[in-house]
Amino acid sequence: MGRYAPDFFKLGGADVFTKKIDHIGIAVKDASSKLSLYQGFLGLKDVHVEELVSRGIRVYMIKVGESKIELLEPMSEQSEISKFLEAKGEGIHHIAFSVEGIDQAVEFAKQNGLQPLSDAPKPGAGGAKVLFLHPKTTGGVLIELVEGSH
Ligand code: ZN
Questions:
Q1: For 51-79, b where at least 16 C-beta lie within 10 A, e where not — what string?
Q2: Rounded to the nearest whole angstrom, what is the distance from the C-alpha of residue 75 to the centroid of ligand 1?
Q3: What pLDDT shows up at residue 108?
Q4: Helix ranges restricted to H, 17-62
Q5: How many whole angstroms from 96 Cα to the centroid of ligand 1?
Q6: What are the angstrom distances between the C-alpha of 53 and each of 47, 89, 97, 131, 138?
Q7: Separation of 98 CA from ligand 1 center, angstroms?
Q8: Is the pLDDT of residue 88 over 60?
Q9: Cα–Cα distance, 71 to 59 (Å, whole number)
Q10: Could you say which of 6, 49, 58, 115 has the lowest number of CB atoms within 10 Å?
Q11: Which of the four pLDDT bands, split at 50, 70 and 90, describes residue 35?
Q12: What value does the mean pLDDT take over residues 28-41?
């Protein structure tokens, strides 16, 4: 089977490229009780903890080879993930793709019938810029675009 034409993978014309799955985001009420699963049972020892105060969340980035698992824990009732936890409980929250050219992605997404959840990328863990696309417009998956994470 042949490869898809390169254009198929472009988000924003020539300027935005998806490189890999950066991480899978998992909403948790209390991360400490889940770390034994990821660190103990699965043996994933490389965990980076960061508080994103403007978004009301504490993030546990757990390295899994080239990719990561991101545990999202609310820091308050008004956190970005509180509504999700209330409505759906703990579980997979989003899939994040590592991209180049995220600033162009907002307009391109709108032009293509996707609904960004913010008018510009927001601060993510590790100094990254992130942009979410509404699951209503992506086939039921909350997609996060990430640029510049380490
Ligand atoms: Zn994420």
A1: ebeebbbbbbbbeeeeebbbbbbbbeeeb
A2: 16
A3: 80
A4: 32-35
A5: 6
A6: 19, 22, 23, 17, 28
A7: 10
A8: yes
A9: 6
A10: 6
A11: very high
A12: 92
Distance 146 CA to ligand 1 centre (A): 8
Q: Hey, which CATH number is domain 15-147, 3.40.30.10, 3.60.15.10, 3.40.50.300, 3.10.180.10?
A: 3.10.180.10
pLDDT at 97 over 80: yes
**Which of the four pLDDT bands, split at 50, 70 and 90, describes residue 16?**
low
Provide the whole-model pTM. 0.84
C-alpha 145 to ligand 1 mean position (Å) = 8
Alpha carbon of 25 to ligand 1 centroid (Å): 5
Question: With bands split at pLDDT 50, 70 and 90, how would you rate the model's confidence at 1?
Answer: very low
**Tokens linked to 119:** 């008018």
> Do 84 and 27 contact (CB within 8 A), yes or no?
yes
Ligand 1 centre from 144 Cα, in Å?
6
CA 2–ligand 1 middle distance (angstroms): 32
Mean pLDDT of the chain: 87
